[in-house]
Design a protein that fits this description.
Helix content: 10-25%
CATH architecture of the largest domain: 3 Solenoid
Strand order of the largest sheet: 3-6-9-12-15-18-21-24-26-27
Radius of gyration: 20 Å
Number of strands: 27
Largest sheet: 10 strands, mixed
Distance between the termini: 55 Å
CATH topology of the largest domain: UDP N-Acetylglucosamine Acyltransferase, domain 1
Structural class: alpha/beta
Number of domains: 2
Shape: elongated
CATH class of the largest domain: Mainly Beta
CATH superfamily of the largest domain: Hexapeptide repeat proteins
């Protein structure tokens, strides 16, 4: 027990913590938890299950990390939660392990900003550099692409995918897949335009942003069937490589495209 670990913390002797991990008061860490260097765990947290946490994460007070999935089919199988590096998880978040009905792992990438009261259910996959604003709720098997931003109180139905560089407005209800680059809003969430400001902030040049706008018009405003729009977008992607993110997404959608 080092000075970095509060005297009231309860840490199973089988847990594997790097030497410089900090643990706050009254936090409980179970036997199958692994935490890499530079990570800070606040007070009153519970870390359980087969949970692997990478480097330089900050997990604030009252979070439940790696608990059993909220799935009636779960029978105690040794499924996992894997969290990457440099993530921030704010107060009262719940991050659950996976289920054997999927890949058996809930996976959170790197450099994500997860605000208070967010729920990440079993078998979800978060990419890198996402922002989940307060009270965002992800049902099971949800996939969130890199740089996506979900506004406060956004709810995402199970098996939905939200593409890279998307943004949803506050209170959005996502019932179908949201294509990359899209700005979506409403109940159910519908595409309202592209996330042009987000693209500019990430350094994309005006010509690339214009190409994304043209792709949006092809997909949503041209009157083309989805198959014909895909064919046209494949041609556009030959000129603008970034659009491959969109064409790849359309080839793997799971719950139908919000259109």
């Amino acid at each position: 027990m080092t000075e970095r670990i509060h005297s009231t913390a309860i840490i199973d002797s089988s847990a594997d913590l790097a030497d410089d991990v900090e643990v706050g008061a009254f936090t409980l860490i179970g036997p199958d938890v692994r935490i890499a260097a530079g990570t800070w765990i606040g007070p009153h947290c519970v870390l359980r299950g087969h949970t692997e946490i990478g480097r330089d994460n900050r997990i604030f007070q009252f979070c439940s990390v790696g608990e059993a999935p909220q799935d009636k089919k779960y029978r105690g199988e040794p499924t996992r939660l894997v969290i990457g590096d440099r993530n921030t998880v704010r107060e009262f978040c719940t991050l659950n392990c996976g289920t054997v009905q999927d890949a058996g792992v809930t996976r959170i990438g790197n450099d994500n900003w997860i605000m208070a009261y967010v729920h990440v259910a079993h078998d979800c996959v978060l990419g890198d550099h996402t922002i989940l604003a307060n009270s965002t709720q992800l049902a099971g098997h949800v996939v969130i692409g890199d740089h996506a931003i979900l506004g406060g109180f956004t709810g995402v139905h199970q098996f939905c995918s939200v593409g890279a560089h998307c943004i949803t407005s506050v209170g959005s209800v996502v019932l179908q897949d949201i294509a990359p680059f899209v700005m979506a809003a409403g109940n159910p969430a519908e595409p309202r335009g592209i996330n042009s400001e987000g693209l500019r902030r990430r350094g994309f040049d005006p010509d690339t942003v214009a190409a994304v706008k043209r792709a949006f018009r092809t997909l949503y405003r041209s009157g083309l069937s989805l198959d014909k729009a895909r064919a046209e977008l494949a041609l556009q992607a030959q000129q603008v490589p970034l659009l491959a993110v969109l064409t790849d997404f359309l080839a793997t959608q799971r719950r139908g495209l919000a259109r």
